[in-house]
Write a structure and sequence with these properties.
There is one protein chain. The protein is an all-beta fold. The protein has a single domain, classed as Immunoglobulin-like (Sandwich), CATH 2.60.40. The chain contains no helices and eleven strands. A hairpin with a 4-residue loop joins strand 7 and strand 8. It is globular, with a radius of gyration of 17 Å. This is Ig-like domain-containing protein. Keywords: Signal. It comes from Amphimedon queenslandica.
Length: about 150
């Protein structure tokens, strides 16, 4: 007879590292509006740390004016852009942008993150992700804890 074992796993990840020079001397980078800290490509962020405009993840390209930059959910078919004005369960984010002197798009949660909306996001600046030669950086936004069911024996 199979036995059902419920295991609760809590991920204790944080942003993997902090860039020592903030902002970096060149290139695209991630920062947090409430910290002033810079993060490298591929950093991880808990959903409960990006749930307000003053806690947003900002993607910045110094010395460039924003044209049409965007955040995109990587796992979506065809890398669909985040709808910054939707505020729905399928697109729970809001965005803010600054056009100059540094192209900046900030992303934060307007409601809770679901299993289908957590994961890898990419930011493209100063143009959208379909433009050849645009600058791209990645961030992983995930739910703080997860429950797993393991079937045993």
């Amino acid at each position: 007879m199979p036995m059902l074992v419920v295991v609760s796993v809590v991920f204790l990840l944080s942003a993997s590292e902090v860039i020592s020079q903030c902002p970096p001397s060149s290139g695209i980078y991630l920062t947090r509006s409430n910290e002033g800290t810079c993060y490298p490509n591929g950093s991880y962020f808990w959903d409960n740390t990006v749930n307000a405009a003053n806690e947003a993840i900002s993607c910045v390209l110094p010395g460039t004016s924003l044209t049409t930059g965007q955040w995109v959910r990587v796992a979506d078919p065809d890398d669909d852009p985040v709808d910054c004005n939707s505020n729905s369960a399928s697109d729970p984010f809001r965005c803010t942008s600054v056009t100059s002197p540094d192209a900046t798009i900030s992303l934060y949660l307007a409601q809770s993150l679901s299993a289908t909306t957590e994961g890898w996001y990419k930011c493209c600046l100063p143009t959208d992700c379909s433009t050849s030669g645009t600058n791209i950086i990645f961030a992983n936004i995930f739910r703080f804890s997860r429950d797993r069911i393991i079937y045993c024996c």
